[in-house]
Amino acid sequence: MARYETRSWPADPSAPGGRAERRAFRYRVFFPDPIAKLQPALPSGVAAAVSVSERAVDALNRDPPRLASLEVLARRLLRAESVASSRIEGLVLSQRRLARAEAEAPDARDETARSVLGNVAAMEHAVALGAAAKPLRLHDLLEIHRHLMLATNTPEIAGRIRDRQNWIGGNAFNPGRADFVPPAPERVKALMEDLVAFMNRTDLPPVVQAAIAHAQFETIHPFADGNGRVGRALIHVMLRRRGLAPRYVPPVSLVLAADAKAYIGGLTAFREDRPADWILSFAEAIERASAKASDLALRLAELQERWRERAGRPRRHSSAEALIVELPAHPIVTVATAQKFLDRSKQAVNEAIATLAEKGILHAITLAKRNRAWEARDLFDLINDFEHDLAIPTDDDEPSRPSPRRKTTSKT
């Protein structure tokens, strides 16, 4: 049975703060139940919500969007998810700044940009992992963390299970004032192996399995840093692995980020042996993210049609048309990057960029080190509106967490 254990924290005369921070004290560590053989019993209302959410994910993956390239939507959704998942951890980066960072040389990126791009890499690895047919191993989860942390200021912890106690909330020096203290380090590996065994099962509804896997991972908190981002990447692993989301995983982090209190409350309910409460909240987030992702696909297709009209209806196989197809996936381009993803000559790419710039579809900017580039401002306006809509968890007039403002793409 899940339980707390009381442990002692030694006195530390060098600890900052007052005398109370330096004294020895006792604190409680949480040890969750193993879940490898868990059979959750769901009330009928929760089971119905799970079914609705799975139909929404299936619809997103089965109803072909009117986009000329499936990769466009997949790439856009993954970046929306990565930005939102990072925002939950206090790493705030706009979609425009992320696109600029991707187009810049690695040594020109700031710390936040490197961290969010690490989250993109982790998400991409999670998607590939979910598509693989082989059984999951603990090493696979460690690899997600390695991709996340390699470009940060602490690459030495990348892919490594923590070897000391961590905690959530309170201060950075000791767990005396913590909101939650995860399992002690000597128990983490066994709990992670149990989690992997649970993730390899195929007898649970995919959304239920993803909800439980995420909550258990966050409870274990196996890494020194990056737990939230890896835990949300596991949602992508599960939904793709179970075949529910073979093309698009909805950006559920955008919904979870919108109401941090409800998100934390759901994880707390799971730890307090009320998994149905968390599963209901998670299923509703999945359903909303799926519906909004489907809407985004239509809005992207409509934007591309407006671009084609403004560009004078380029020929089907022209470089200008090829660039319009790919712009939602690559909203900031240089000649070199466009050559790479279009697989066309420098002259053809230059002519395509010139055509779209003349029609006001692309706008010239300068990246770090004076590299010339072009951006699709209409795309950033659309994505900002998409994120703003998802940042509002209810019918309230204002979002409960900061969200992108509309029509701000003229600023860095």
UniProtKB/TrEMBL annotation:
Region Disordered, residue ranges: 391-412
Annotated catalytic residues: 221
GO terms for MF: ATP binding
PROSITE patterns: FIDO
Coiled coil segments of this chain: none
Domain Fido: 136-285
UniProt-annotated binding residues for ATP: 225-232
Key words of the record: ATP-binding, Nucleotide-binding
Stored InterPro entries: Fic/DOC_N, Fido, Fido-like_dom_sf, Fido_containing
Biased composition, class Basic residues, residue ranges: 403-412
Organism superkingdom: Bacteria
The UniProt record lists the keyword Nucleotide-binding: yes
Database matches in SUPFAM superfamilies: Fic-like
PANTHER family, per the entry: FIDO DOMAIN-CONTAINING PROTEIN, FIDO DOMAIN-CONTAINING PROTEIN DDB_G0283145
Stated name of the protein: Filamentation induced by cAMP protein Fic
Organismal lineage: Bacteria, Pseudomonadati, Myxococcota, Myxococcia, Myxococcales
